[in-house]
């Protein structure tokens, strides 16, 4: 079992929080990427205790963000929710809070304005996160999600934003599903260097499902060449956990322990050999 493998909780989405923790422990997986919905359903203190008892570390908390609302009260609500997420991450001992920055508000076509609001939100939240010991981790999403989920679509855009802040305050997530297509990706991974807060892996399925959100697959089931991406992240200096994060309805229909066994096998085949030290 790789010491760097982390099971992102959404990969086994049907599992409750206790089931996910117990499943990781049974399989010998040393870390979890925790999601806020099951965290809130089970409770923060109970989750933190279960994780400690199982000897699991938290590789990230998913997710904060959704900064692009233009209506003042919605923006205030988003900022308050992100502060709660930062507090949750700190209590879990997570190193970073994953941020999906948000898409265009309904009826809004001002893409540059939405991106400016992301920068404004980071400026407000970064000092608060730093005080809590949490790095904000910007996740660029594939351009097909630009309208509804993330107006930040490339690693270069995410790094440009992150570089407005001290190194430890704002970093970036390298997610193979979202960045594999980018012809500039290897230069940008090298540029990200110490700002890489998290490395997430899943494959790009062909044909793409009708529900674009569920287009991820187990490593080896799609078209991504993982080896050069893993080597690039290692060369950039990243030595942290590697989260397997898969949104896939067919996968979720399988028993949880079967999903975990497949994750462990595919990680060993497609990811671990190229990670290096």
Short description, anyone?
By secondary structure, the chain is α/β, with parallel strands linked by helices. It contains 12 helices and 10 strands.
What does it look like?
The protein is α/β, with parallel strands linked by helices. The chain has a single domain, classed as Divalent-metal-dependent TIM barrel enzymes (TIM Barrel). Helices cover 45% and strands 17% of the residues. It contains twelve helices and ten strands. The strands form two sheets. It has an eight-stranded parallel β-barrel with strand order 1-2-3-4-5-6-7-10, surrounded by five helices. The protein has a two-stranded antiparallel ribbon with strand order 8-9. Helix 1 packs across helix 11. The longest helix has 22 residues. The two termini are 15 Å apart. The relative contact order is 0.14. The model has no long low-confidence stretch (mean pLDDT 97).
């Amino acid at each position: 079992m790789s010491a760097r493998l982390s099971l992102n909780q959404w990969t086994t989405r049907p599992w409750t929080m206790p089931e996910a923790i117990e499943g990781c422990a049974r399989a010998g997986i040393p870390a979890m990427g925790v999601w806020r919905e099951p965290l809130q359903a089970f409770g923060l203190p109970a989750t933190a205790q279960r994780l400690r008892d199982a000897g699991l570390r938290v590789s990230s908390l998913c997710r904060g963000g959704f900064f692009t609302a233009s209506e003042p009260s919605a923006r205030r609500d988003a900022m308050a929710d992100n502060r709660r997420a930062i507090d949750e991450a700190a209590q879990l001992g997570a190193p970073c809070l994953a941020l999906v920055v948000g898409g265009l508000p309904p009826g809004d076509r001002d893409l540059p304005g939405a991106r400016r609001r992301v920068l404004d939100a980071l400026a407000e939240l970064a000092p608060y996160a730093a005080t809590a010991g949490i790095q904000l981790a910007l996740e660029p999403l594939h351009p097909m999600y630009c309208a509804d989920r993330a107006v930040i679509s490339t690693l270069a855009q995410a790094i440009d934003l992150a570089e407005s802040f001290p190194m430890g305050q704002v970093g970036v997530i390298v997610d193979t599903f979202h960045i594999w297509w980018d012809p500039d990706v290897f230069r940008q991974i090298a540029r990200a260097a110490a700002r890489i807060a998290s490395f997430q892996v899943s494959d790009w399925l062909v044909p793409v499902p009708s529900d674009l959100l569920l287009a991820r697959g187990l490593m080896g089931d799609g078209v991504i060449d993982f080896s050069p991406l893993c080597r690039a992240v290692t060369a950039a200096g990243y030595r942290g956990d590697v989260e397997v994060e898969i949104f896939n309805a067919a996968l979720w229909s399988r028993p949880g322990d079967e999903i975990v066994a497949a994750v462990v096998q595919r990680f060993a085949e497609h990811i671990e050999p190229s990670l290096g030290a």
